[in-house]
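$ ./design --mode recover --in tokens.txt
reading tokens...
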């Protein structure tokens, strides 16, 4: 099933993004970050769902919190508790919207300032890794118990850009950026993983890993994928290209029963062209 991220259409309120995508003919929409909280958000989503016969997924930073923060379930301060509460709200909303999957980013060893998300992050002291991993696993256990199998949970691979790898002098402040770090991030938790191919391409480049080999090691273990384009240096959310490294990485893979979300931040025509490329892979 092919979903389109609501973040592909930049609006203040989620209903505006969903309506634009629905009127363009997209029936499967992943609700993601980038919009503001407001009182009638849920009723608007339900109304649009009924009117256009939509199927939703909630992702990471959705629904938008009243006060913005960077979600980090591995934080060794109150950010972890805020993140846990947010994820529980997202699970509750997923149930009410009929969404059966919910993914959130794996944890970090830092708290990222809001104005540095997706950009160069200024070097700072890292959390103690063993303590942060312990906190992250505790949070995962709580969320799995809370979801109780009614919503399938996933951790998404983080992106380590070349400039952030250099800024932190070769230290990796993010959990789950490549295949060898997945087991560490999961611990003993029975949780799935969302494979973001764009994130993986950047991280593989930063860590001098073979991108195709990384895809091969991770893709058969999941039924949930995010896809967009970049040049391998940073996450850019560009439209797909027919013969790109990211699209080629999916050729001859078993994709039929996976949820695949487009995160291409372009116009509706570009989204449609990217959608057709993914359809051809299926």
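writing sequence...
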């Amino acid at each position: 099933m092919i979903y389109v991220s609501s973040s592909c259409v930049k609006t203040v309120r989620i209903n505006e993004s969903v309506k634009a995508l629905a009127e363009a003919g997209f029936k499967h929409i992943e609700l993601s970050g980038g919009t503001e909280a407001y009182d009638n958000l849920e009723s608007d989503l339900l109304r649009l769902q009924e009117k256009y016969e939509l199927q939703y997924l909630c992702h990471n930073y959705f629904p938008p919190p009243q006060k913005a923060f960077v979600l980090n379930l591995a934080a060794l301060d109150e950010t972890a508790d805020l993140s846990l509460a947010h994820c529980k709200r997202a699970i509750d909303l997923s149930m009410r919207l009929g969404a059966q999957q919910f993914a959130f980013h794996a944890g970090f060893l830092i708290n990222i300032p809001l104005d540095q998300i997706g950009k160069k992050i200024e070097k700072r002291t890292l959390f103690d890794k063993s303590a942060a991993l312990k906190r992250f696993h505790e949070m995962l256990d709580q969320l799995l118990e809370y979801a109780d199998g009614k919503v399938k949970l996933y951790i998404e691979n983080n992106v380590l850009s070349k400039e952030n790898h250099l800024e932190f002098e070769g230290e990796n402040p993010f959990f789950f950026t490549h295949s060898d770090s997945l087991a560490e991030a999961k611990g003993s938790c029975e949780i799935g993983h969302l494979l973001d191919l764009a994130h993986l391409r950047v991280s593989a480049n930063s860590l001098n890993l073979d991108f195709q080999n990384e895809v091969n090691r991770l893709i058969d273990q999941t039924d949930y994928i995010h896809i967009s384009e970049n040049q391998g240096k940073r996450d850019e959310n560009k439209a797909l290209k027919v013969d790109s490294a990211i699209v080629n990485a999916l050729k001859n893979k078993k994709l039929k029963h996976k949820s695949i979300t487009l995160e291409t931040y372009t116009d509706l025509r570009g989204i449609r062209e990217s959608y057709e490329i993914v359809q051809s892979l299926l």
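exit 0
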